[in-house]
Amino acid sequence: MNILKLNVAVFSSLISLLFAVVDTAASKPLGFRPGPNATVMLNGKPYRGVGINYFSCFLRTLKDGNDTSYESGFATLKAKGIPYARFCATGFWPRDMKLYVEDREEYFRRLDGVVHSAEKHGIGLIPSLFWYYACVPDLVGEPMDQWANPNSKTHAWMRQYVREVVTRYRDNPTIWAWELGNEFSLYAEILHAVRPKADSRLGTPETRSKRDELTFDMVRHAFISFATAVREHDPSRLIFTGDSFPRLAAWNLEQKKSWDHDTMEQFKQMLIKANPDPISGISLHAYEDDDQRFAHAMEVSRLVNKPIFIGEFGAQHETEPQAAKFRRLLKAIVDHEIPLATVWVFDHPAQKDFNITADNGRAYQLDLIVQANQKLKASRIP
Length: 382
Description:
By secondary structure, the protein is of the alpha/beta class. It is 43% helix and 12% strand.
């Protein structure tokens, strides 16, 4: 009897220990989380780091299932000490989503290949789920203004894809944050009526109309609905819009239809409006002289307690003046205590003026990223 009681006690203890381990694993924070005073936490510790855009790592295998060049790409990034990458996690044109429509299992097998390769090589990922703002409305046969209609087919398709992707990867530690798309706001409120490209060979409508001209209101609806959809399935990871710095005339374009430059207060207003709750971070893309607005952006970041992610920065061409510009932007990111940034762009030959590989004339940028990360790591709070 005593032996039986002892065995039962031991068994109960083992079960309790097992549940404790499972509980701890389940509650372990995954990916980027917001920290105090607009900082970022990774795996429960303060984090600052510079990564890179690997824009086409999924697109290339989406177009050709035999193309697994992302494997050597992630291996190179690991060897170079690059910690994480932002990438396009859907098709660019409606035509690119043909596989998703016809064979969803194969579509996700290819996306799984990218995610698992990054995981194997220890590279964090920030998937941008709807890179080109026109792709989803075009897929469902609606104009761009349906981004402002939460009851539209555009929103329904967006929510479906968010659910499928987020629930598939939310327990994977290699997913560090979520992002909507790329620079939606830069297409909004433009006086010369910017409309998406129309080319039926790409799966778009043959013509466009005024309803395809974005407004800031449409874009904000897209931001809010996307973040709300992500939060239904992932309660904690950082969510970014993928937007750029507001145009120098963003406030005036929306309010007065004018290209007059905004005041600094107007810039700050637009930056807050461009990153509405439940978006949990501030997205910026920085080129040319955008570093001159870093300090003001950080003021806004701390005011609303949302960390900044500079999703793109860089310099084109292989000249010393451009190299100096790159070093200046990178130094400004470090000096202004911006938590996250990714350089544009790794292994993307179509962007020949920005393309970075391990052995071309911009390879030095990979080395400078490593040096910056070493400096950032040394400055982190213990």
